[in-house]
Amino acid sequence: MTDNADLAISVRGLTKRFGDKTVVDRFDMDVPRGSIYGFLGPNGSGKTTTIRMMCGLLVPDGGEGECLGYDILTQSRRIKEHVGYMTQRFSLYEDLTIRENLDFMARMFRLKDRTARVDKALDDLGLKDRADQLAGTLSGGWKQRMSLAACMLHEPRLLLLDEPTAGVDPKARRDFWDEIRRLSAKGVTVLVSTHYMDEAVQCDFIAYIAYGRRLISGPAGEIPNIIGLHTWQVEGGDISALEEELREDERVGQVARFGPVLHVSGTDQAALDEVAHEHIKRGTHKWTAREAGLEEAFIYLMAGARDNFAVPGGAQ
Amino acid sequence: MISLSFARFSAVLIKEFVQMRRDRVTFAMMIGIPVMQLLLFGYAINSDPKHLPTLVQMDDSGPITRAVLASMQTSDYFDFLGAVTGREEGDRALRDGTANFVVVIPQNFERDVLRGLSPDILLAADASDPTATSGAVAALTGIVDAAVAQSLTGARQPEPRPAAPFTVTVHRQFNPESETPINIVPGLLGVILSMTMVMITAVAIVRESERGTMEALLATPVRPLEVMFGKIIPYILVGYVQTAVFLLAARFLFDVPFLGSPLAFFIGFNLFIAVNLMVGFLISTVARSQMQAMQISFFTLLPTILLSGFLFPFAGMPGWAQAIGSAIPATHFLRITRKVMLKGAGLADIASDMAAIGAIAAVVIVISLSRYRQTLD
Ligand SMILES: Nc1ncnc2c1ncn2[C@@H]1O[C@H](COP(=O)(O)OP(=O)(O)OP(=O)(O)O)[C@@H](O)[C@H]1O
Ligand SMILES: [Mg+2]
């Protein structure tokens, strides 16, 4: 708790190897206290592994860092007391009831007035009537909500949420994000991994990881600028034919379709503008220059990730 | 290990009991296995098989011989199929199983009995199945003695009369030493406890990592010892129940005596349960899935049955097998139960066996603690 008192998480050079495969490679991350920090990246990029190292579930092969001011290498027990970790895979007991599960977690953290807290959590979840149902018989979305409730019982200062809304319906997801923002306003720090763009845009900060390397990180709004992405919006006319044509054009970085609208982006602004002006002369569609959004940015990053896959050893 | 929390320990304990109660099949197995095994083995013990096929090699004949054979026949143990003419024919019949016994009346038997030379009747027995033949073998001397005594009264008394008019020599073939069945029941307790305690503990712990619940558990401030004790103690109680069921059944169904000190038994038995749970814990640090845990447990069961002295006499095993056998806790527990139950031993008599189990436990603890990870990797 010295120079980085404002940071809930600060790690440098985190590295994890499984066998000869480097799964997380010299990873740096700074998460300001009270912020909502989005953690994005394709499947298998090392998000879960990174989160596990931060809360002491995996021992890093290299690197160092602090979590809530505690050393992640030596003070993992202190970290665990103040962190709520929601695992990606359901990790509560399917053969215990909802109440028994919550009660068990409350005991693990030695909470005072346990019953009251469990009751309140059940109430908040809207699961009061089904408190005595076995957790294994809940639907996927309900399991997620119950896991979230379980990891927040002890009112942690930092939440590590690993794809908390996978398989959760839109209404429940909105409720969930409302709750996250409420907690954040109270000073709780939230690190959340997700594959959903609409969730990414709700974050204050974002880090994007691929092959265990951090590709980019920063305030959510600045991500497109950091990448240096430029975008033209195109509408009208035969949009599908145009989409085909633009995909063939080597000067265009990427074409993303949003219903009747195309977002044509690239990092080489001159080349992109050249294409735009040619098409504007043809006059078949309406072209408008616009700021690149997060969506385009992520599509761009993901596309880059796929390319790397094709190059053998490119990631290692 | 600064501050163990009783609250966390008891939370794990309660959870484990609830899960055990809901897992009906495993629960039924834990109680059912000992009862089933005891009944199976007990049936073998009860069966003191009679009417075993027997051949005679008569190298002499006369009134005494006839009396001996007649009383063997009436004892119901032996059914005479016929006669063989030589040693080879008899051996062949034993080998291919047409006969369980060949009785050899030696040449000049009648004359030697009368002269008081105490000749030998040879009983060649197929002892590859000791439980089948031992009852008959044990009965033989008595039968023959009575028969000869009877046929000698009235006939010429041998002068001077020897202690016994003749002796019966038993050749047990294919299995030089055979266990008496009553030994099997106390030994069985060791095998049953090894099997269920090791397997259940290993499976219960591996289940946490297989179902992914270990991740949530490790993310809490819980300490390894709290988890370990919380998970193990319910199964100690299961071991108690199994043993109680077992001892009652042994006593009342099969008349197996309990001659020695209950205290000695109780202490030895607790030590044995503890070491089994530790072995189970050790297996859980190796196995990646419940299936693997089960397979490794079964793998350890095999030497427990074969090399502990449960099925084959320990002293008769080759040196290397004895060395392996000595490293198996059940070997020593077997001795404890046999000594206490059958030979009336007390605490002092089993001290060396307990020391051996203690030494094994110490090694297992050191290995498993060095393997135990408080993380997922
Ligand atoms: N215990 C393990 N042993 C070996 N390899 C592992 C282990 N855990 C993870 N990996 C590998 O590490 C890589 C990163 O996995 P990780 O679960 O961190 O990815 P992720 O970003 O969380 O992916 P997803 O979005 O699918 O959840 C994967 O290639 C995975 O196969
Ligand atoms: Mg993951």
Automatic annotation (TrEMBL), chain A:
InterPro entries (alphabetical): AAA+_ATPase (IPR003593), ABC_transporter-like_ATP-bd (IPR003439), ABC_transporter-like_CS (IPR017871), P-loop_NTPase (IPR027417)
The ABC transporter domain, residue ranges: 9-236
UniProt cross-references to Gene3D superfamilies, sorted A to Z: P-loop containing nucleotide triphosphate hydrolases
Molecular functions per Gene Ontology: ATP binding; ATP hydrolysis activity
This protein's UniProt keywords: ATP-binding, Nucleotide-binding
Record flagged with keyword Nucleotide-binding: yes
Signal sequence annotation: none
Family: Belongs to the ABC transporter superfamily.
Record-given protein name: ATP-binding cassette domain-containing protein
Organism: Stappia sediminis
Organism ancestry: Bacteria, Pseudomonadati, Pseudomonadota, Alphaproteobacteria, Hyphomicrobiales
UniProtKB/TrEMBL annotation, chain B:
Lineage: superkingdom: Bacteria
UniProt topology in membrane: Multi-pass membrane protein
InterPro entries for this protein: ABC-2_transporter_component, ABC2_TM, ABC2_TM_bact-type
Membrane-spanning residues: 25-45, 184-206, 232-254, 260-284, 296-315, 350-369
Entry GO CC: plasma membrane
Entries under Pfam families matching the protein: ABC2_membrane_3 (PF12698)
Main location: membrane
Family, similarity comment: Belongs to the ABC-2 integral membrane protein family.
PANTHER family with a match to the protein in the record: MEMBRANE COMPONENT OF ABC TRANSPORTER YHHJ-RELATED, MULTIDRUG ABC TRANSPORTER PERMEASE YBHS-RELATED
Protein name from the UniProt record: ABC transporter permease
Lineage of source species: Bacteria, Pseudomonadati, Pseudomonadota, Alphaproteobacteria, Hyphomicrobiales
